[in-house]
Amino acid sequence: MPRSPIHHHIFSIAHRKNGYDIPLHTRLGTEFLVLLIALMTYLLLLSASGSIGLGHMANKWVSGLENAMTIEIPAKQTSPQEASGLVRKLEKIKNVNSARVLTSSDMQDMLSPWLGNDSSVLADLPLPTLISLELVERTPETTQAIQNLVNATAPDAIVDSHEAWLVDLLKLTNGLRLTALIVFGLILFVTSFVIAGAVRSRMAMHQRELELLHTMGATDKYISLQFIRYIFSQTLKGLAFGILAGFITFIGFALFTNQSSGTLPELEMGQTDWIILLSIPFLLLVIGTFTARQTVYSVLNEMP
Amino acid sequence: MIKFEHVGLRYGIGPEVLSDISFTLEQGSFHFLCGPSGAGKSSLMTLLYLGRKASRGQIHMMGKDTGRLKRNDLAELRQKIGVVFQDFRLLPHLSAFDNAALPLRISGVSERKIKSHVEELLDWVGLGDCMKRLPATLSGGQQQRIAIARAVIANPRLLLADEPTGNLDDEIGMKLMGLFEQLNKMGTTILIATHSTQILDRLPHRRLILNQGRLDIFDPLAPNTSPPKMPEFLHA
Ligand SMILES: Nc1ncnc2c1ncn2[C@@H]1O[C@H](COP(=O)(O)OP(=O)(O)OP(=O)(O)O)[C@@H](O)[C@H]1O
Ligand SMILES: [Mg+2]
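^ thats the input. predicted complex w/ magnesium ion below
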């Protein structure tokens, strides 16, 4: 049969691409894998760094509150002398680093967001006397000693140890971190599930090739390596896109927090945080190749 | 080399395509497999290249009971068997070269050796200038020669060929038969399914004759034997 030169040219450049005996390099509808891996990488990066950021934020708040205590003495109940006498006694208690009576300018600073900078308003208000305590370490004995002293000197005073606050805050952040962990696990599970599905469908498409290789004595290992290579390269591509998207998001976030007033804690990444983030691509690669291998083996196992 | 004991084969819940087949092929022997279309020649070949498990009976091959082998041992055994399929089964996306190279790649031969061996063999079967072409661009006869090259490239201990000369003209057909004879002289056990009276007449090898799922053996060189109830097609 005579063939046109063009026909001859197109078909004469055939060669084995990327070492695949099975035509896995051809586009047959499993390219969505790249997109999926990219998305999963992105989500994993987000949930991991969200959890990391939350951890830092909680730590910051907690360390602010943890070693602080406030004693509130109702207005007109104590003279300034009595208050400073209490402060001196408080400072002698073990584990108390410092204690001081908040001055009216301190109070003004605290209240100015609500009342404005007009000091005359403040003078007319029946403000309580506040003593701020800073502890070296919060122990039950210290808390008890402070409470006893306050009870003896100013029975109406209230000791606010911020404990309820701390507990709530810890509950909240732990809850959020647990959620992030569950989301993390779900993403990995779904990824592995979808990869298994993609491998199965590719194997079904190439049933004839697989059977031929099998009857020519190709071991399960030989065949699975081709699929592992395919999944590995798709995962790499997906990772690249996902990491790029994550990077852009971080930059955006950093710009945003720099402009904001500082109520949002900026992301400070420690060494372990970097390790966690960097392990995500490896985790996906390992899960991808492992899933591919297991799937190929289980499908091949049905061949004689 | 090969020993079948009361082997039967059925596809799914169908009737037995092969029933109670027993025979022995000696190491280094050369047999033809004949029988009318639908007699089960290809099915018998499938059992021989371990492409299916027998429904009953035992198949011993190269000293091993194939029913008891582990997956990896089966793979190793299959690597010692070269097969020319009736329908070629070339991989359509691979060039002639890569198709012929497959068995070597599977057994882990270095690319340098693969290149020299495959080029030499494809040259020998007259495909030296089609090595980079895809099977779809080649004629039936050319494809068949790639299939044969692929079957013999790894120097198998057992060569199975199902109608290997069906699409070839007599001259190249006999040349390839010469290749099989040569391989046989070097110790390869050979079984060829064929309809070709021309080949059967010229080469006086023993014949396994399949008919309706049963097997007879006929030796054209043995004195005083007439073919057992020869099916007509053989001398038509
Ligand atoms: N995969 C299969 N599934 C079901 N039945 C099959 C299958 N392959 C073959 N058969 C049946 O087995 C019988 C023997 O077929 P087989 O292909 O072995 O014959 P053959 O001797 O090779 O014929 P031919 O000379 O035409 O190649 C036929 O009745 C066929 O219908
Ligand atoms: Mg047949």
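The mean pLDDT of chain A is 80.
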